[in-house]
Amino acid sequence: MALDTAKKQEIIEKYSRGEKDTGSTEIQVALLTARIVYLTEHLKTNKKDHSSRLGLLKLVGQRRRLMRYLKKSDLKRYTVIKTDLGLRN
Question: Is the pTM of this model over 0.85?
Answer without folding.
Answer: yes
